[in-house]
Amino acid sequence: MDALDLPNLHARSFALARWKLREWLFDLGDEPPEHWSRSRAILIIAFAWATWLYRLVLFLGIAILVYHFFVKLVGIFLFFVEILWFVAKPLASELAVWRTLWPRIVLRSRSRRAAVWSALLCIILLLPLPSRISVSAVLKPQESWPIYVPAGARIEAMPFKHGDWVPAGQTLMQLYVPELASRAKTLKLRLDQQRYLAETSAFNDDLRKRWMVSEQTALATQAELQGVQAEQHQYAPAAPFGGQFLLADPDLTVGQWIGKKDNLALLVHQSSPWRVETWLDEDDVARVRVGQSAKFLTDGPTSPIVDLKVISVDKDAARVLPRRELASLLGGHVMTRERSGQLIPERAVYRVTLEVLQMPDELKQLTWRGQLIIHANWQSPIARYARQMLMVLVREIGF
């Protein structure tokens, strides 16, 4: 008011803005409540709209604060009082003015056009339309056997190359762990010494008295050696079934050191079908049904389109995300937080599995991450937001 030298700025600007709104919608031809220059009128109307928007945000914020900081029942009551008094009442008063002007409104052609456009907008918002869900996903064989390193090790031998066929029972890779090799050597020397003492105790009175102790010590050392050898056996993984040997890094060579829990390779069963897996939140999974079609494209620059079909949708939410590459921190779509080395989804997510109808040959050499597009159920544009509002309402009014 001081800057523009306009007393009662709020009341005068609101009256002018309401008049302009009616003219835009209905073209009634009424005289404005006050006559201003074009630039001054635009400024005053803009101020009125900005004030309305500010008050709407402010009153909604106050209503939410009142709801959260009071006893829940009182908070709900005060929330509705705020909404009714500061938001609904001004709207109702304007609608009452429209009701008195209704005989004139229905005669105006612009009013009819506004009604038609409003009806079309409502139809567009309420009419179910084809919808798609676009998320990250993983393309992988259904039956496979990953090869990991339990601890840091060095590659001693690689009998098979990337893409080779491996018969069942064959050693896929030989790894060397210096600590285990040193322990095994020490235990063997100790076991040989204890066995020698046990065998020669019959020729010495002092050793004969300690014969039972030497025998028990030799058995304990042998058991410890067998444990180390069993642990070494983990560093010489054998194929549990015949399949294709796929290296995680085709450049792996003999003599290279591998870190703890590094993924070395994948053994894929020859007749294993390929699947696509993803995890969807509650809003998206509600629109997915078994039998729906989908398409998958890898993250590479040139990728063939893989045709898919939904074959299963989990009913229970996943507690952890088993596919780290789908986490948002690694470029995926699932929001997660890390706890105890596991990725915990921020929202409830459900696994969706899709069948590959025809697997391209150029994609059979690796597991792929890419973009999945599911042709989901038809849905109106406003249905998702209405469902979210209803979920929040049901959750918050529960006692």
Automatic annotation (TrEMBL):
Keywords: Membrane, Transmembrane, Transmembrane helix, Transport. InterPro entries: MFP_Cation_Efflux (IPR051909). This is HlyD family efflux transporter periplasmic adaptor subunit. The chain crosses the membrane at residues 41-67, 73-92.
